[in-house]
Amino acid sequence: MNSQESVQIGALAKTLGITTRTIRYYEEIGVMGKSNRLIGGTRTYTRDDILRLKFILKLKDMGVSLKEIQELSNIFDINAQNFKTITPKLIEILDQHIAKVDDKIASLSSLRQDIVEYRVRITDLLAKADTN
After folding, report:
1. Residue 132 domain-assigned?
2. Of 33, 95, 120, 121, which is most buried, counting CB atoms within 10 Å of its CB?
3. pTM
4. What angle do CA 26, 5, 77 make, to 5 degrees?
5. What is the average pLDDT across 97-124?
6. How far is the C-alpha of 100 from the C-alpha of 40, rounded, in Å?
7. How many domains does the chain have?
C-alpha cells in the first residue's frame, strides 16, 4: 500500500485481527486521530493511519494503558505527528513497564520458591506418615 491508497475499516479490522468497534473506540478517545470517510460515511484509513494503529496495538500488547497511549497521541498530534517528539515520553513509559515486569518476575519467583518449599514439606510429612 502506498501513502495515497486507503483501506476501509472492515478490511483493516480483519487484517489486524480486531473489531471495527475497537478502531472506532480508539478514534473516539483520540488515540487514532480522525479517519477519512467515503460517501455514505464509511471510514477509510491511509498507510500512516494503519502504522499508527499497529503502534497502538503493540503498545497495548506490552501493557501500556490507554491513558498513556492517549498522552503519547496528544504529544504526537500537537507536534505535527513528528515521531521524535514522543520518543522521550515513550522511553519513560517503557522504562516504567520494564520495572513493573521486573517486580512481577521477582514476585513470581518468590511465589514459586514458596510453593516448592511447601511441596517438599507436604511430601516429607506424607513419607513420615507412611513409615509410621
Report:
1. no
2. 33
3. 0.73
4. 40
5. 96
6. 46
7. 1
